[in-house]
Design a protein that fits this description.
This is histidine kinase. The protein is an alpha+beta fold and about 260 residues long. The chain contains seven helices and seven strands, in the order H-H-E-H-E-E-H-E-H-E-H-H-E-E. Helix content is about 45%, strand content about 20%. The strands form two sheets. Strands 2-4-5-7-6 form a five-stranded mixed β-sheet. A hairpin with a 3-residue loop joins strand 6 and strand 7. The structure holds adenosine-5'-diphosphate.
Length: about 260
């Protein structure tokens, strides 16, 4: 619990700082990208400046996407929850995710039946899914497979008694599985910390998973990770179902797919 509190305070401080910087920086990138676009109107492909201007435009677009991650991170206090069917949210996002991960990686979606309704912020839930898929992509530079799966699971009293985060009831379980590089246990210990990254400078902010963690906590959910080097990683996210009741006895709470924490 102390760990979680420390984590929350750290995120709070980092969030405020990041928000301030990100906002100003976004404006600057807007100007840079805007002028590059304007200049491109005046030149054609034969002009030596054409490539350079395109590079500037690309870089400012990439910069803006990093900044929007920072902004999302710092804005995590404000959520606008609505009733959502996670299957519908994911269906609508699949094409965009396929674009993000590229053709060398396959993406399967296994939609759970009678999933139930969650009360959640649409944009933030999309962000969780995208962050997890982008990380999975980065863990599979030579290609691989991502499986996104939803399930309606019951957490019973026994389980809730032994797991501090859980209260009994029905949850939507979202899992994102990849068969990429995996992580060793020392890495896994740190992945939810702000700014922890193993990626090259400019490739990662280290904010993806702390954002995921923050969003899931705000939705009174829970996130777990199972990972094994050279085999792959599974992220599991539990989100409480609206009007859920723990009336049935069930052994549905899924265990680890393979090893890990
Ligand atoms: P970033 O992606 O910017 O590095 P994240 O917070 O999203 O920041 O991730 C932190 C670190 O967790 C990554 O740098 C990587 O080492 C590890 N990681 C996250 N997802 C995966 C995954 N699916 N497979 C292997 N490693 C992962």
């Amino acid at each position: 619990l102390e760990d979680q509190l420390r984590q929350a305070q750290k995120m709070e401080a980092v969030g405020q700082m990041a928000g301030g910087i990100a906002h100003d920086f976004n404006n600057l990138l807007q100007v840079i990208g805007g002028y590059a676009e304007l200049s491109l109107m005046g030149v054609d492909e034969t002009n030596p400046c054409w490539t350079a201007l395109n590079e500037i435009q690309d870089a400012s677009t990439r910069g803006k996407s990093l900044v929007s991650q920072l902004l999302a991170f710092s804005r995590r206090q404000v959520i606008h929850p609505v009733d959502l069917n996670l299957n519908v949210v994911i269906e609508r996002l699949l094409q965009m995710i396929r674009g993000l991960i590229g053709e060398h990686i396959s993406l399967d979606f296994i939609a759970g039946h009678n999933l139930g309704t969650i009360h959640a912020d649409h944009g933030l839930i999309e962000q969780v899914l995208m962050n997890l898929c982008v990380n999975a992509r980065d863990a599979m530079p030579d290609g691989g497979k991502i499986i996104v799966e939803t399930e309606n699971v019951l957490i019973d009293g026994d389980y809730a008694n032994t797991h501090a985060w859980a209260s009994p009831g029905r949850y939507v379980l979202l899992s994102v599985t990849d068969n990429g590089s995996g992580m060793d246990s020392r890495t896994v210990e740190h992945i939810f910390e702000p700014f922890f990254t193993t990626k090259e400078v400019g490739k990662g902010t280290g904010l993806g998973l702390s954002t995921v963690f923050g969003i899931v906590k705000q939705h009174e959910g829970h996130v777990t990770v199972y990972s094994e080097l050279e085999k792959g990683t599974v992220f599991k996210i539990y989100l409480p179902i609206v009007g859920r009741k723990a009336t049935e006895i069930s052994r549905e709470v899924p265990g680890p797919v393979f090893g890990g924490t």
